[in-house]
Specification:
This protein is of the alpha+beta class and about 60 residues long. The protein has 2 helices and 2 strands; from the N terminus they run E-H-E-H. It has helices spanning about 20-30, 50-55; strands at about 15-20, 45. Strands 1-2 form a two-stranded antiparallel ribbon. The longest helix has 8 residues, at about 20-30. The relative contact order is 0.25. The model has no long low-confidence stretch (mean pLDDT about 85).
Length: about 60
């Protein structure tokens, strides 16, 4: 069984902040987000999470 993901109440402080163009977010959610297709303007700051962590949450189809 895979790890579970749940949407919960908003935390007091975010784990990280993602700054990305809308089209990259759509690519991420669709699982089409390989590092070679990630623009340099995409950043994830402020925490323990990495872009690879996000890629793992949205594995694609």
């Amino acid at each position: 069984m895979a790890d579970a993901v749940a949407v919960t109440d908003e935390p007091d402080r975010p784990d990280a902040v993602l700054s990305a163009p809308a089209e990259w977010w759509v690519r991420l959610a669709a699982g089409r987000h390989s590092p070679e297709h990630t623009p340099a303007t995409v950043t994830l700051t402020g925490g323990k999470l990495t872009l690879d962590d996000l890629r793992g949450v949205f594995p694609g189809y």
